[in-house]
Amino acid sequence: MRIDLHTHSVASDGTDTPAALVRAAAAAGLDVVAITDHDTASGWGEAEEAAQSVGIELVRGMEISTRHEGVGVHLLAYLPDPGHPALDEALSKILAGRNSRVPAMLERLRGLGVAIEASDVRRVAPGTAATGRPHVADALVDLGVVADRTEAFRRFLNPGRPAYVDRYAASLLETMDVVAQAGGVCVIAHPWGRHGPHEPDEATLAELTEAGLAGIEVDHQDHDAHDRERLRAIAGNLGLLVTGSSDYHGTGKRDHDLGCNTTAPEQYARLLDLASAAAQRSGRAVPGVVRP
Ligand code: AMP
Ligand code: ZN
Ligand code: FE
Ligand code: FE
Questions:
Q1: 253 CA: nearest ligand 1 atom
Q2: I need a labelling partner for 2 at 20 to 30 A (CA). Which of 14, 103, 143, 290 fits?
Q3: 93: pLDDT confidence band, cut at 50, 70 and 90?
Q4: From the CB of 150, is ligand 1 less than 6 Å away?
């Protein structure tokens, strides 16, 4: 069984439509794929139809932009009811923060002499519910200012670069609570990604486990072999489940091919057990796994 639990479509900042993503996952030999767009479930419907037609197991999820003690944390929420009012409200706030930040980034770029308008971003991001820096990067590519997303981030969009603008992120603990109410399961994406300091550390992860965290994504391209071993040991100490995934973004992110990291079948089975329990506790009609 090959299981990839973290991928993006054009519903956020990937480059494949949800249907194309699911077909690509099947073509890559995966048995299970999760669609986890940033801050939105808007790709789920199309992905579900495609999964049924190509015969792959689909886990519906999302990657929510949160913050904990000043550190940005991407929270993977699996199988929550996206129609739960508190979850819907939390996501709406994040999406509003994403949208309001784009004009500020464009203003900075114009200040640097780049002629770029909101319409340039809309043109390259027709399917997204979660506009972000990758779309501004795509507009810069389209305008011939940079060669690719990587150059756009390096020159303009990374923190510390001149067009970077921060955006609203939800509180991690509050979001975990909302996801639980909505019957979903919480896993922290690439906890030590982005080459920053090793935060959240074990003590923080222990607190988060007390607060209902189910697992951490250990096998991710942002983690080197040493960090993977340390994170695996922490997960063992805390009883957290361990996932592995590609964080595929289509052609939008290099070195994140579908299935480049995978989740062990027994860890996936644990995740599904926790999802059933969470669904039962929530009393919500949660989306199940789509089985071929
Ligand atoms: P945002 O959520 O709008 O702040 O944008 C963050 C997204 O940009 C994340 O999904 C990353 O995958 C993506 N990203 C960050 N750095 C790069 C890069 N150098 N090249 C392509 N995508 C990137
Ligand atoms: Zn992304
Ligand atoms: Fe992420
Ligand atoms: Fe991601």
A1: 21
A2: 14
A3: very high
A4: yes
